[in-house]
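To close the section, here is one more complete example, presented without commentary so you can practise reading it yourself. The ligand is flavin-adenine dinucleotide.
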Amino acid sequence: MDPKHIAEIRLIIGDSSRVIVNPQIVEQLSRDFYWYSPVLRKQLDGKLGDVVVQPLSAAEIQKLLRYGYANNLPVTARGAGTGNYGQAVPLEGGVVLDLSRMDRIEEIQPEGVAVCQPGVRLGELENEARKAGWELRCYPSTIIKASIGGFLGGGSGGIGTVAHGYLRDFQTVRAIEVVTMEPEPRVILHEGEAVHEILHAWGTNGIITRIWLALTPAVEWSQCVAAFDSFAAAFDFGEKIATGAQWIKRLVTVFEWPIPSFFTPIRKYAPEGKTLIFFMIASSQLAELEAAAQEGGGTITHSAVYPGLNARPLLSDYTWNHTTLWAMRSDEAYTYLQCGFNPDTVREQMRQLRERFGQEFLFHMEFMKNGEGRVIPGAIPVVYYTTEERLNEMIDFCREIGVFVANPHVNNVEGGGRYRADNVQLLAKQRYDPKGLLNPGKMITFHSESATAGAKTK
Ligand SMILES: Cc1cc2nc3c(=O)[nH]c(=O)nc-3n(C[C@H](O)[C@H](O)[C@H](O)COP(=O)(O)OP(=O)(O)OC[C@H]3O[C@@H](n4cnc5c(N)ncnc54)[C@H](O)[C@@H]3O)c2cc1C
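Output:
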């Protein structure tokens, strides 16, 4: 980037400590967890921004984007950089817009809606919400570090999804305010259905500056680990609890052996060769759950009141996308997929996968509520990586037998499996970022000619 732009940006921001060119910091803040994927590692290593800017307000972002638009500077938003598909990696250099300083929880409204800035860490929001009698409906296993803006920009769900669906479901995101990348950047409020124009668009069609997030009444949680001799018995029991409406739960995760052997800090809860289920269950139902698990052939290896986010062990540290991290620590060749099974044929689908791929495809199942309110078995299987061809063979075979795959080894919004068929994210990009300067290269169906056409019709 021409040094004159850095000097101009310093004038715009008026505080040079928030305009960072130190190469180590720029490098650190240009990366995320893309190295999770052996495919993305090859594509994204060495991609860097030129400067990191840390705004404090929507007004400051407007000024910066006005300058960026006039001078054709790419701008890539960043929350905490815990995304694992290279979502926040700037492909064309330019400005890394680090939102971490916009970290104010403005209000927890009496009806259970949190109003906050994008840089608020989800763990902080959970703690504050609980003080007011509420809690997050769903959160990623990176809750402690991840920001709410990044969760809306690039995340999907996690702990709590078994009860409350994904972030995109059940009007969990009530409204989003974004700043646009136009000659005169606007601040636009998206409410109701219009939030889907911005959700999971990877910061390609606006910078999120304020969020209204629906919460749910707080529950006193306990954690419980049950060990089963066979995967089939564990899966049956996990499914029974996950789909049983009477159970108040936040997490039902089934790991086949040897996945539990990767969890070194809590290895004592994992008897050799057993399948484990991790539960977060209402404390009022803990005794009943333990009795049911024992009746179903399980043994309880850990059970305690949930210790809060700052104490350990925290079972969620081993679930959702964290499972893969533990597997990779054990053997770097492990990677992962993200799958949705058919609840009516899941056992047959799993049988076919085992028959075809054997131990290359290990079952880590997460139960989740879908948008229609049905609890279905999903999976973030731990897969053994040998070649890209073999990985694609696994993805193709899943799709052939009716298993949905959100491919975590692609670096664009459309390929990741959460792109909306109604194109609303693309249409919003055409209106709000006609030059394609926001996180360029990540929305591959966007072309600036169509953008011009789209912008004219507005
Ligand atoms: C070990 C591990 C476990 C994980 N578990 C889960 C999980 O359970 N569920 C899940 O959904 N994800 C999971 N993830 C992915 C990631 O942690 C979450 O999606 C998280 O919410 C991202 O937040 P972040 O602040 O780190 O976002 P970032 O990585 O900084 O950004 C994510 C995307 O959002 C965009 N963005 C950030 N801020 C803004 C903004 N203000 N305006 C517009 N766009 C913005 C960025 O440009 C980027 O495209 C996991 C990742 C890892 C490494």
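Once you have examined the tokens, check your reading against these statements. The chain has 14 helices and 21 strands. The chain has a mean pLDDT of 96.
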